[in-house]
Specification:
The protein is built from nine helices and five strands. The protein is an alpha/beta fold. Mean pLDDT is about 90; it is low at about 10-25.
Length: about 270
């Protein structure tokens, strides 16, 4: 019944004026934990929001390595990026073959980020859904699992800051993620909570209100870490070699933990 509801809801944006009609039925993720207990081979696919300020995959594997006990996954993390790309721009059939990116074994998880702007129009949402369905099939065929990275909405001075980007992306992520049975990584939700608790924090660059600052990318990595490994980053000593001040680090670690617990009901 849940899969039927997810399918029905995901189809509504194609035929009705607004995706908002699905909102009430898509309030929680169907996948509550990582499909792999301890993922060691992970491919991240996304544009500059993923590789900016030290890169999401880099901060995530460094948080893991600094944990107690340490988890060394650096050699198993790969990241592929195309500037300003939407999800459909990536050659997924090529990328999921481990030999094409220097691996011998299949990936455990492939993280699909796409672009935050894909939530903004009905046509883009429909294309994102179709792409995610096709990519998920290719990922599963390659022996891996799909995760969807829920990217944060933009803030001022970005011209889309006053739009419904957060709500539209939430609906799209939950609808598509639940339809394909993917792990949804709630980075956007963590940003919203951090801004609520500390309105003056700088998580996105002042020149465009979109690309993550170091604090923003660290927050995203702490959410990925918690989503993947079921562990909190609270107390983790990693601070990008002193680049992130202690107060900010501890705050975003706390927000990441709170977000992961709330989103997955842990």
């Amino acid at each position: 019944m849940k899969r039927f509801a997810a399918l029905l809801c995901s189809l509504l944006p194609l035929v009705l004026p607004s995706v908002a009609l699905c909102a009430q039925g898509m309030s929680a993720p169907s996948v509550k934990q990582s499909p792999v207990d301890t993922p060691r081979r992970v491919l991240f696919i996304g544009n500059s929001l993923v590789y900016y300020n030290g890169a999401l995959q880099t901060h995530t594997h460094r948080i893991a390595a600094a944990a107690t006990p340490p988890l060394i996954v650096r050699d198993g993390y790969k990241s592929v990026h195309i500037t300003s790309a939407y999800l459909h721009h990536y050659p997924i059939d090529f990328l999921v073959k481990p030999e094409n990116v220097g691996f011998k074994e299949p990936f455990d998880i492939v993280v699909l980020a796409g672009s935050i702007q894909e939530a903004m129009t009905e046509a883009d949402r429909a294309r994102y859904r179709q792409t995610a369905l096709r990519f998920d099939a290719a990922i599963k065929k390659a022996g891996a699992h799909t995760a969807l990275l829920w990217l944060p909405a933009v803030v001022k001075p970005n011209p889309l800051a006053d739009s419904d980007m957060y709500k539209l992306s939430e609906q799209m992520m939950l609808s598509v993620g639940n339809e394909i049975g993917a792990l949804i990584i709630p980075v956007a939700m963590a940003y919203q909570e951090a801004y609520r608790q500390r309105p003056g924090i700088k998580l996105q660059m002042g020149y465009d209100g979109s690309h993550p600052t170091l604090a923003g990318q660290y927050l995203a990595a702490a959410v990925v870490y918690g989503s993947f490994y079921g562990k909190s980053a609270i107390g983790n000593p990693y601070d990008y070699f002193g680049a992130l001040d202690r107060d900010t680090k501890e705050f975003v670690q706390k927000v990441a933990d709170e977000t992961v617990r709330k989103f997955f009901g842990r």
